[in-house]
Amino acid sequence: MISLNEPFLVGNEKKYLNEAVKSTWVSTNGHFLKKFCNKINSILKIKYSFPCSSGTSALHLALLSVGVKKNDEIIVPSLTFIAPINAVKYVGANPIFMDVQEDHNLNIKKTIEFLEKKTYYKKNKSWNKKTNKNISAIIIVHMWGHCSNIYKLIKFCKRRGIKVIEDASEALGSKYLINNKKKISLGCLGDVGCLSFNGNKVITTGSGGMVVSNNKSIIKKANYLGNQAKDDSLRYIHNNIGFNYKMNNLQAAMGCAQLENLSLFLKNKRKIHKYYLNKINKLGNFSVLEPSKKCWSNNWMNILQIKTDFALTPFDIHKFLKKNGVETRMIWFPNHLQSKFKKYQTYKINYAKKIFNNSLCLPSSSFLTNKHILFIVNLLTKLDKKYLK
Ligand SMILES: Cc1ncc(COP(=O)(O)O)c(C=O)c1O
Fold first, then answer.
1. Which residues pair with residue 257 across a beta bridge?
2. What is the Cα–Cα distance from 320 to 322, expressed in whole angstroms?
């Protein structure tokens, strides 16, 4: 079976894990934690970070740390993994669903249009004209490791008192290009960024995540809340409700080993993406999603785009490939249509469903060879020929 996105564990993972075990520092203290954070900070060129047990806990802490309150409203894209949407509910806020655009990322034009037409600015905050509730933050998800032209939106949000949370869970190593020259790591453009190190991500710590920011007080708050809100750790005084969200030293040991191979993973992923692109874009019914010109992508996941009038659905293609030993995955169901989220406000969503009906995630592990990809492409070529009009 060629799987979807397997970890590549070929470095010092076992060695560092053994070191951590030997040291007996296996919980939320230990030297690998410090080393891992420092390494991430230097790769991202960001000042501060807090290592978490998952990307989801990082998102929860990020929302709390920028000051989102109960009953606030948070702008989110409809098309994303559900974790950022759930995190909005964890803090008692409500999502406002926006559409995505052709590159699958948050629709910048519609989001700015919504803010201009449907909200007003008063007392340094933005308010929803429909509900009179404070829109205190936006979560920009960098889909598949790609980003769109987000700078204009981020500047707009800053002027409107809306905090920008970047969900860069899939985007470690990806960069935003300013004037085609200056590169800023995704996760570092807004007020706070979140990363995931789940087993299917570019690097893994088993499970794990991180909150990153150039704002010291945001990370201080994430650290405080993620560490059980200890106001006095000797006397066990807790003046707030905290969480047990910190990463442990074993996870960090694995992360340190994985980071040593980050550039290899990124190089391989770039090659895999180019090879898919070159082969699949020659077929009549299929193409591969490409990042926007504004993005230097880590190419975390390759997405097959299927022509709208093609005879088979993504699910049919998924079943055919599975029968032939290839694991693929449907992309996420639009969240504004999920039963728990149907009741929330949406704004002009039409791309999300279309994209859901035309896309399929292709195997993208960083150790895939041209031979693996050719095997997959040959299967797709069979389908392409069989159903050519
Ligand atoms: C966009 C996005 N956000 C958040 C998460 C949640 O991360 P985790 O699984 O580490 O909790 C994921 C993936 O798993 C993701 O893809």
1. none
2. 5
Quick check: 181 pLDDT over 90? no
Domain boundaries, the chain: 13-259, 262-386
Pair 374, 382: CB distance under 8 Å: no
Indicate if ligand 1 lies below 6 Å from the C-beta of 167: yes
d(CA 151, CA 148): 9
Examine the pLDDT at 207 and tell me if it is beyond 80. yes
Tell me, using a 6 A CB cutoff, whether residue 223 lines ligand 1.
no
For the CA atoms of 193, 254, 224, 186, what is the dihedral angle to 10 degrees? -10
- CB distance 84 to ligand 1 below 6 Å: yes
Pocket test for ligand 1, best of 198, 202, 301 (most atoms within 8 A of CB): 198
| Position 179 confidence tier, pLDDT thresholds 50, 70, 90 | confident
Residues in the chain: 389
Task: Give the position, in ligand 1's atom list, of the atom nearest the Cα of 59.
Answer: 4
Contacts of 235 (CB under 8 A, 6+ apart): none
The beta strand positions in 307-347, using DSSP E, are 329-330, 346-347
Q: What is the CATH number of domain 262-386?
A: 3.90.1150.10
Closest by Cα among 381, 95, 159, 301 to 288 = 301
User: 141: which residues sit within 8 A by CB, 6+ positions away?
Assistant: 76, 77, 80, 81, 84, 105, 106, 167, 169
d(CA 171, CA 129): 34
For the cut 90, the answer to whether the pLDDT of residue 232 exceeds it is yes
In CATH terms, the fold of domain 13-259 is Aspartate Aminotransferase; domain 2 (3.40.640)
What whole-number distance in Å separates Cα of residue 300 and Cα of residue 289?
Answer: 12
pTM score of the predicted model: 0.98
Beta strands in 192-299 (DSSP E): 192-196, 209-213, 286-288, 295-296
